[in-house]
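Dear Dr. L.,

I hope this message finds you well. Following up on our conversation about the binding site, I have prepared a predicted three-dimensional model of the protein together with glycyl-adenosine-5'-phosphate. For your records, I am including the exact sequence and ligand specification that went into the calculation, followed by the structure tokens. Please feel free to forward this to your student if that is useful.
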Amino acid sequence: MTITIDEMAAFCKRKGFVYPNSEIYGGMAGFFDYGPLGVEVKNNLKAEWWKANVTQRDDVVGIDGSIIAHPKVWIASGHVGCFADMMLTCEKCKEKFRADHFIEDSLKIAADGMKAAEINRLVKDNALKCPKCSGQFQETQDFNLMFRTFVGPKTDDKSVAYLRPETAQLMFTNFRLVVDNARLKLPFGIAQIGRAFRNEISPRNFLFRCREFEQMEIEYFVHPDKTYDCPYVESVYGHRILVYSAEMQAKHAEAQEMSMKEALDKGIIKTSWHAYWLASAHRWFIGLGAKKENFRIRQHVATEKSHYALDTWDLEYNFPFGWKELQGIANRTDYDLKAHMEHSGQDLSIFDEETKQKVVPHVVCEPSLGVDRSFLVFMFDAYSTRKDEKGNEVVVLKIHPKLASHKAGVFPLVNKLEGKAKEVYESLRSDIPCFFDRSGSIGRRYARADEIGIPFCITIDFDTEKDGTVTIRDRDTAEQRRVKIDDLTNVLQGLVSCRIGFADL
Ligand code: GAP
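The resulting structure of the complex is given below.
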């Protein structure tokens, strides 16, 4: 079942997943607030990512850096100088448009990474005008995406600071401390989840392109001579995915499905590290219920690479508005550590015990994933409908139990059984996020739970009093089983963690 991004935004608002920010004041473009259900799903998503990428790994540790840092951090990283999008301004009404998006929408051609001269030529040759007032455009200008603020009571140039446009730089500025404290040995990663801010010229597509969002990032450091030696690569050799290399794009060829081994052997993916992190990211999504076929990996063409990147591959998702970046995995080399060494005057090299060399490690891969885009992916792949008994189409949000806001709804069949049902509910809730619902028919309560993605419903009925069992219903199949109240916590924990399946009950 495919719905548009606007339909998804409306669904998220109606059910309490995500609201447009400051709506009572007319809204604030590019900002969103997560509601009671959305905040739970988002927290679960971040917890799953942290577990898979930090807790369950020996080679990655986490940090939580602050949003505002010394402005020199962003000068050294290159963001003050070149973190910009091109902008078209209407001479008449002064409306502003993100130039590449405007070209894409107007001429239906890819414009990512297009140079200013080319954009100016296309505007002129195609007589493109302002869609608001039909005015002429000025020449394209660069627009820096960093949000500026002032630290302290003064508003002079010396007090200027920036809201971070990526979480990444804090892993570089804290590099020496983290390496020493966590006694890290190459290769290793430093991970972070946190907010990032970009003053997007034209935020659009709901959560896809916002001005405030969250990222889950890892800077993965390796010895500069070992950028091809990933010790984990064999674990992903057999993993298959749709691959769209820069060469395929240049030839206007179709993306091809292949294994990671094949992509490496054919030299399509250059480093084993890239193959490993791309496959790991894809597997993480699939493991949490996303649909394998909705993903592909695409290599950046030369014109679209960031100022710091040697080679970049994106994990892309087939959104209703086309294939778009979900996660960027750039090879940042030693660009950042060297830049911070130069600007701070501090030595950020480390001693590699294996080679007995002092080295400035390379970030061979920087898996950088948007929380909000991931949230959208899981919502789109979970969204489905079924016909109810009256023939009406109703939504079933088949979101993975690990991500679901609540793992179970607890219902008394009739109000008379509310006391016993409350008892069951109280016994569950210290271990399992669940909710209690007594209003409406039992069918109505199941439908409400299905729509917000509650994987299991527990009904307390007249047999409960007699034999101490309850009905447990599976959201995705509507099948029901009887389970002893004494076993309920264990059974639910098993189902949510996928240790057991519903068919095993
Ligand atoms: N540190 C590298 C970096 O920030 P990026 O490709 O600019 O790379 C990484 O961003 C990820 O952050 C993207 O793949 C996307 O998921 C998310 N992201 C970037 N800009 C965003 C925006 N305006 N709104 C929502 N998510 C965004």
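In brief: DSSP finds 17 helices and 25 strands in the chain.

With kind regards,
A. P.
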